[in-house]
Amino acid sequence: MEGLQRCFVLHARPYSETSLILDVFSEDSGRITLLSKGARRKRSNLKGALQPFTPLFMKWSGKGSMPVLTHAEPISIGLPMRSYILYSAMYVNELVARVLETNTPYPVLFLDYLNVLRELAQADNPEPALRRFELALLYHLGYGIDFLHCAGSGLPVDDTMTYNYREQRGFIASLTIGQLTFTGEQLKAIDARRFETPDQLRAAKRFTRMALKPYLGGKPLKSRELFIPRGRSTGK
After folding, report:
1. Which domain of life does the protein's organism represent (predicted)?
2. What domains, with CATH codes, occur in the chain?
3. How many CB atoms lie within 10 A of CB 59?
4. Would you say 180 and 164 are in contact if contact means Cβ atoms under 8 Å apart?
5. pTM as predicted
6. Is residue 199 within 8 Å of residue 159, measured between CB atoms?
């Protein structure tokens, strides 16, 4: 069918007695808000399809702030997000919904999003996949930073030296140790998206939280307030 786009539903909320408002991530159109009329009716063929983590073909009509969904069909079954992994997947959805501007195409980021869902569906530890997606998101937002060179001297970072992060400048060699400090080895791991040790994962998480904060503003992420089962980490 002409005009179909690959999409995922990020979030759905009730509208009137029978309809839904959908926050959708589309391969060609980016993040959009759609009205799905009648989707909540008992006999609606859309009722089971408009779920997060289910790849869909979707089509809509109309312009303005809320086009109307005219067609939706699953491409495949939903990606299974078991127990604690579900919280991490919900975090990814909320991050995309909060950070991306509407009606701005991000076709490569859409593939990164699809990949992180696939990784999460198969993961025991969600953190490496989440850190890679966060870094991809920052890159597509235009957040360019050099992890491999000292912003002060221009020299390549040294594994054993420490570097202090300065917003909009990069990493500068420093003898002080604090929340903004990273070793050269940690910076190289972040640049390579290589997270093989707990220390590398902690450093990457610390960096992405700092870097994403300006995009998220002061409003906390709801997915971080979810219950975390004992002994498990959602990776957020």
Report:
1. Bacteria
2. 5-74 (2.40.50.140), 84-224 (1.20.1440.120)
3. 16
4. yes
5. 0.89
6. no
